């Protein structure tokens, strides 16, 4: 593989706006995730029933992904993103306003997730449009903002839960910040799509095989990340004998590794060829998984999860960059498809691992993670030739 000349990332007002919008997105995602155990106690439901909220989030993302091309075609990217911000805040308000009503909270999780996916995927597409060869770096930085904000959100939920206001007050952060951002930066222009002709007079054609293989790699990466998020604490407890309350801190080690990886990822993406960087990140995650999976020591298990997070940090931004690169310039359509593949990954990956854990034990079931990483490596290598980071083409 040949080296690429360093490129510059110029952070203009539109770039900072998207970064901040994705910071608000993080308050929704990590806020509703942290609130779920408290919500389950308020509702008095089983863990399986509470888990339906995760299913609702996946369904919301898939439904909106199907509608996204029509929406952006009718009102444009900028208006769609602000509608996503409003819907994301409305969904969290539904959960905060009626936390004991299961149908309402399921709807709230679904609405918030679906509308938030507009913010996430159109924001990423706008960054890729705006920054060209520096697009992967901008996408990595945007995801770093999400993780950094996300680290603090569970502490806000915890503090609110122990106050006179209750945990529901923490969910108000999302609509409040969304409103404030709209008032302060609502006039900033977000880049609209620069859709390129498909060589047939502008008539839309189907995506080529490289696009769907890149989307399959995205599926594997998202599924692996959520398997870590939802099942690492259980395996940590099983392997080390630590109580469940302490084992929950294992996810913090994984998240800290992700934060460090995404902070470094923007810098690395400007200096290392995308395929090389992505492959390295997949191998780092596999190495971290091996340390974690084999360890019975809490210290080594924490270290393995931190290393895993370091690698996983770049999986989603790099995989999404490749989906956009394989789109033939049709970034908004590609973003909609990415939302569908990611939603399927969130819904299928952790569920399948849980089903395997019921039958074979959590340690054996966790072998699914390196299997997903291996499939991602294979897909990456197959699509590596002829795919530019700027996304100029999609040979079929």
Helices and strands, with pairings:
Blueprint: H1 13-43, H2 47-50, H3 52-75, H4 77-97, H5 102-131, H6 135-161, H7 173-185, H8 209-240, H9 244-247, H10 250-269, H11 274-294, H12 298-312, H13 315-325, H14 331-360, H15 362-365, H16 368-384
Helix pairs in contact: 1-4, 1-5, 1-6, 1-7, 3-4, 3-5, 3-14, 4-5, 4-7, 5-6, 5-14, 6-10, 8-12, 8-13, 8-14, 8-16, 10-12, 11-12, 11-16, 13-14
Main location: membrane
Membrane topology: Multi-pass membrane protein
Pfam families: MFS_1
Account of the protein in words:
With 396 residues, the protein is mainly α. The protein folds into two domains: 11-189, MFS general substrate transporter like domains (Growth Hormone, Chain: A); 207-388, Up-down Bundle (Growth Hormone, Chain: A), CATH 1.20.1250. 77% of the residues lie in helices and 0% in strands. It has helices at residues 13-43, 47-50, 52-75, 77-97, 102-131, 135-161, 173-185, 209-240, 244-247, 250-269, 274-294, 298-312, 315-325, 331-360, 362-365, 368-384. The protein is globular. Pfam families: MFS_1 (PF07690).
Percent helix among the residues?
A: over 70%
In CATH, the homologous superfamily of the largest domain goes by the name MFS general substrate transporter like domains
Helix-strand pattern, N to C?
Answer: HHHHHHHHHHHHHHHH
Total number of strands: 0
Radius of gyration: 20 Å
Strand count, sense and barrel status of the largest sheet are: none
Structural shape = globular
The poorly predicted ranges are 197-203, 389-396
H/I helix tally: 16
Calculate the mean pLDDT score and round it. 84
Q: Beta-strand level of the residues, as a percent range?
A: under 5%
The CATH architecture of the largest domain can be named as Up-down Bundle
Based on helices, strands and strand pairing, what is the structural class? mainly alpha
Question: Number of domains in the coordinates?
Answer: 2
Distance from first to last alpha carbon: 22 Å
- Regarding CATH, which class of the largest domain? Mainly Alpha
CATH topology of the largest domain: Growth Hormone, Chain: A
InterPro entries: MFS, MFS_dom, MFS_trans_sf, MFS_Transporter
Transmembrane segments: 16-36, 48-68, 80-101, 107-127, 139-161, 167-190, 211-232, 244-264, 276-294, 300-324, 336-357, 363-382
Membrane topology: Multi-pass membrane protein
Organism: Streptosporangium vulgare
């Amino acid at each position: 593989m040949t080296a690429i000349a360093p490129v510059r990332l110029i952070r203009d007002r539109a770039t900072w706006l998207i970064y901040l919008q994705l910071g608000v997105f993080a308050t929704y995602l990590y806020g509703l995730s942290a609130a779920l155990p408290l919500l389950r106690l308020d509702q008095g439901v089983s863990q399986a029933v509470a888990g339906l909220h995760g299913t609702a989030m996946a369904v919301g993302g898939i439904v909106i992904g199907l509608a996204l091309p029509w929406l952006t075609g009718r009102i444009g990217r900028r208006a769609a993103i602000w509608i996503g911000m409003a819907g994301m805040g409305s969904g969290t308000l539904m959960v905060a306003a009626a936390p004991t009503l299961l149908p309402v909270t399921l709807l709230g999780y679904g609405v918030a997730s679906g509308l938030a996916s507009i913010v996430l995927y159109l924001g990423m597409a706008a960054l890729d449009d705006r920054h060209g060869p520096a697009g992967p770096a901008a996408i990595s930085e945007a995801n770093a903002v999400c993780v950094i904000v996300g680290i603090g959100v569970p502490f806000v939920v915890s503090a609110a839960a122990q106050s006179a206001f209750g945990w529901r007050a923490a969910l108000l952060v999302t609509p409040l910040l969304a409103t404030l951002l709209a008032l302060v930066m609502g006039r900033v222009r977000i880049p609209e799509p620069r859709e390129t002709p498909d060589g047939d007079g502008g008539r839309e054609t189907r995506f080529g095989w490289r696009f769907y293989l890149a989307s399959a790699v995205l599926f594997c990466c998202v599924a692996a990340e959520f398997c870590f998020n939802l099942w690492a604490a259980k395996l940590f407890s099983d392997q080390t004998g630590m109580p469940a309350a302490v084992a929950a801190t294992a996810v913090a080690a994984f998240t800290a590794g992700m934060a460090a990886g995404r902070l470094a990822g923007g810098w690395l993406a400007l200096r290392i060829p995308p395929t090389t960087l992505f492959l390295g990140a997949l191998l780092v995650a596999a190495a971290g998984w091996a340390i974690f999976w084999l360890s019975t020591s809490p210290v080594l298990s924490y270290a393995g999860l931190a290393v895993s997070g370091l690698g996983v940090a770049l999986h989603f931004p790099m995989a999404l960059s490749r989906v956009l690169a394989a789109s033939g310039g049709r970034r908004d359509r590609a973003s909609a498809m990415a939302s569908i593949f990611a939603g399927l990954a969130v819904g299928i990956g952790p569920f399948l691992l849980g089903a395997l854990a019921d039958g074979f034990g959590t340690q054996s079931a966790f072998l699914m993670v390196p299997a997903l990483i291996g499939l991602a490596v294979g897909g990456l290598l197959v699509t590596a030739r002829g795919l530019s980071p700027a996304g100029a083409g999609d040979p079929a």
